[in-house]
Write a structure and sequence with these properties.
This protein is an alpha/beta fold. Helices cover 43% and strands 15% of the residues. The protein has one domain: Rossmann fold. An eight-stranded mixed β-sheet has the order 1-8-2-7-6-3-5-4, sandwiched between helices.
């Protein structure tokens, strides 16, 4: 509609794809389940950020997304909340492996994502495990064995644990590559490709990146199916 177009212009949102839904410009408009909405309102947020407003309705249609938006734009909840909604619908046993998998470049970022997942998923009682290098594997493996609906991982450590056959990704339905540009800069492309081979082809894939260089375009073209692209601001 016209108001959706006006919102996009005002917030410098450009979208590429077929029949892209209008942005959800208020939390009330999202139709999120009450236990999720409650946590968002508890956080004191007044409105969705532009990337949230535009990527939520697309993600809720189960479509693949490439989102290019700078740091601090609220991308984490942009992908976490639709992931939560997938989880609510799935009947997967978390002891058999995660349903939602988020790849993140560093321990610090992965930990921040886990904190956000625990905070906003609290009322929904999702379990979330964080896997990263530079720390012993034992406690991470123990947590995995207890079951995790959501795994947030750096590609290196997750790949190590996969090679040990200590986690299965065959229940993953929702795969997020967060800070894809940063992960490629760190040389994680081989690990990412190995990990994605273990995730079922029937999945939803979301890629979040602050920049859009050709290396990122290439991996997006290989791993995503007919994605809708959402850019916030100028992207080169
Ligand atoms: P990005 O991943 O794009 O760098 P984050 O997801 O880390 O951004 O979000 C940046 C900050 O904005 C976080 O502290 C987060 O809690 C906060 N935030 C997220 N969504 C909103 C919102 N709708 N309104 C206000 N602040 C928000
Ligand atoms: Mg982020």
């Amino acid at each position: 509609g016209l108001s959706g177009e006006a919102y996009r212009r005002r917030h410098e949102i450009t979208v590429t794809g077929d029949e892209v839904p209008s942005p959800l410009t208020s939390f009330e408009a999202t139709g999120f389940p009450s236990e999720i909405l409650k946590e968002v309102l508890n956080a004191g947020f007044s409105a969705p950020t532009p990337i949230q407003a535009q990527s939520w309705p697309i993600a809720l249609q189960s479509r693949d997304i490439v989102a290019v938006a700078k740091t601090g734009s609220g991308k984490t909840l942009g992908y976490l909340i639709p992931g939560f909604i997938h989880l609510k619908r799935s009947c997967n046993d978390p002891r058999l492996g995660p349903t939602v998998l988020v790849l993140s470049p560093t321990r610090e970022l992965a930990t921040q994502i886990q904190v956000e997942a625990v905070k906003f998923g609290k009322s929904s009682r999702f379990s979330c495990t964080c896997l990263y290098g530079g720390a012993p594997k034992g406690p991470q493996l123990k947590e995995l064995d207890r079951g995790a609906d959501i795994v947030v991982a750096t590609p290196g450590r997750l790949n190590d644990i996969l090679e040990m056959r200590r986690v299965s990704l065959n229940q993953v339905k929702y795969l997020v590559l967060d800070e894809a540009d940063h992960m490629l800069d760190m040389g994680f492309e081989p690990q990412i490709r190995k990990i994605v081979k273990e995730v079922p082809a029937r999945r939803q894939t979301l890629m979040y990146t602050a920049t859009w260089p050709k290396e990122v375009r290439k991996i997006a073209a290989d791993l995503l199916v007919n994605p809708v692209q959402v850019n916030i601001g100028n992207v080169d």
